Amino acid sequence: MAKLNYEVLKNSGYDGYILEKAPIKVLQFGEGNFLRAFVDYWFDMSNEKAGWNGKVALVQPIGQGLSHLINEQEGLYTLYLRGSENGEKINRKRVISVCDACYSPYITEDWEKIKEIAASDDLEYIASNTTEAGIVYDPNSTFEQTPPDSFPAKLTVLLYERFKAGKKGVVILSCELIDANGKELEKCVKKHIADWNLGADFEKWIEEENLFCSTLVDRIVPGRIRDPKEVAELEKEHGYEDPLLDVGEVFGVWYIEGPEWLEEKLPFKKAGLNVHVVPDVIPYKKRKVRILNGAHTGFVLGAYLAGQDIVRDCMHNKNIHGFMNKMLYDEVIPVLPLDKDDCDAFAAAVTDRFNNPFVDHLLMSISLNSTSKWKARNMPSFLEYIEKFGKLPQALTMSLAAYIAFYSNDIQRREDNGLVCKRPAGNEYTVMDDAWVLDFYYEHKDADIRTLVHDVLTNEKMWDQDLTQIAGLEETVVADLQLIREQGAEAAYASVL
What we know:
By secondary structure, this protein is α/β, with parallel strands linked by helices. It has 22 helices and 14 strands. Helices cover 48% and strands 15% of the residues. Strand 13 and strand 14 form a beta hairpin. Helix 11 (282-305) packs across helix 14, helix 11 crosses helix 16 and helix 17 (394-408) packs across helix 21 (473-487). It is globular, with a radius of gyration of 25 Å. The termini are far apart.
């Protein structure tokens, strides 16, 4: 079967939107599954819905990558967005045609082409996702290297090429999963400017002509389909082979920190897409961590003890789903510094995302390192609720008891890779966390409930504070844990509804 390209696609009978020729307006560092299902998707949709008429040139950030395959397919690839919307199963196919070509900076002629694109009149944006380790200052990266080792160093050289060519600045959209990703990238660039003595005029141009945007990305991208049978079926249906086929969840939102004029410059608003320019991405990151991630950590440990194995099935259990909703709508959302309706809509989308019929998300995979996760995702809501309302949040307090229950349920043994416990259903499971956390629970395997709860809540290494100082908490967690142990986690969850 022929591999996907424009001629093969035409012969396949595909009747969706395709744009074969357009000027390169985006230089993108990263060619992996996430960027192709997220950033490139939004720009591709903008071509269709807003007449943006632009292409993306991809830069392979490491020595081994997808450039040869992408160029062989002339930048084309198939994207499936799958999931649930308003309870309806979605399996949406789109052939993405926004990518022009992919270049490896480790090939001399490609690096020269990248510099040429960086200095072109058409370029408007530079996007990146070079992983969390990508935005770091590397003192060993030099201006003379072809190319410099680190991503910020490469970017500095490319911006210098643009500056020397007398061109206007660009908008830089950082998608790496670190706080203040755009600001951190700008700091690295300025450090290279100083170290390499590139001059005050260039630094002024960087500050006044360019906009480094911190962004918050939100879309789960499983990536490749690994079932050979499904791949074969899709190839037969498509009429072509596509080893670049990508899969993402149907939900997606992109928050870009910037001034108001940026929303009009970017094509996304005109295209009616779920991409938003905001003055500060921090509240939206807080919303994602507290609602989406906090929901996971808040209900999955008790749900596993109750006999559930995957997230989707929990959404069909009225007590577990009801418990999650009470936690989110009654306790988390009321303390968030964002519009309530907006948060309610985000929480409603969480149910759809957790109900994704294409993803079997194991509760045990979510349980990894739940001590630090509960502290980061759930404790801020827990403490802020107490401060605002002067009482304990019932569901969040129960989730703390469920965390203790999961880490201490019929402990069998301590192994090198974890703490082996036994579920009420009878099967063993392995709790995985920092060694000191697992040692703590193993040392308490014979402790009574009251002693266990007291020692957990007073463990300042876990929580950075003595939680027994919160009025009524110790007694409530003891009672909740007793209920979980005696009647089961599902009954305990139901008790707060």
